[in-house]
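G., the chain you wanted modeled:
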Amino acid sequence: MPEALPRVSIVTPSFNHARFLEQTMRSVLEQDYPNIEYIVIDGGSQDGSRDLIEAYAPQLAYWQSQPDGGQTDAINQGFARATGEILAWLNSDDYLLPGAVSRAVAALQAEPELGMVYGDCLLVNAEGKTIKRFPAAQTDYARLRRGYVHIPQQSSFWRASLWEAVGPLDPSFYFAMDYDLWTRLARMAPLKYLPGEPWAAFRLHGDAKSLAQDDRCWPEMLRVHYRDGGKKLAALPAKYLLRKLLQPLLIARRRRQFKA
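Predicted structure as tokens:
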């Protein structure tokens, strides 16, 4: 029975992403896992997103469309209403692939000591064409502190009990709130990468933060580094300086690959 399976709460924060939103919602609602609590928090979009959400409202546990404090605030609002044992969030321009939730739940049930599991993820363009795979890899607290992240947020699922201990997301973070969360989770329990069939797709397009405002990510990661006692002469600050030098080239290459 679905009630015997752990409930998985998935939150989608959204703002003016009607172009992609329906695919995102359907990718959750059409999963083969029968006990999903799906919550959509829209920031008062004016592009038709509200009409799309209302069309799927009977299948949603909760939804709203009203001004909020941005993506991080929207995610926190969603998780404040979540009742699941396992949590995830899916941005409104990304999407899950079939079977993702079932595989994540099976992995967490098989190894109760794990705090979070994550699978592979495709990098796709605006039309959903696969460009390559996200460079996912096994990491842990020590490696995260050195900037070895390699966790695709779109295919990450973690235990609500840990969220209750370390959450919510820090609303002062605009870009690296996921990195901040991963370090806090990894300090408390192991994270495990499960390579194989991709669980999700990460869409990069002209309006995506990952392209338009990439320069805000690493300074926020440095905030986590120094907050947690990191030194200036360490791997993460060195990686930041190198990336800062190469950033114009990296962004230009990404834009060519994932042009809208």
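Residues 97 and 140 are 25 Å apart (CA to CA).

Shout if anything looks off.
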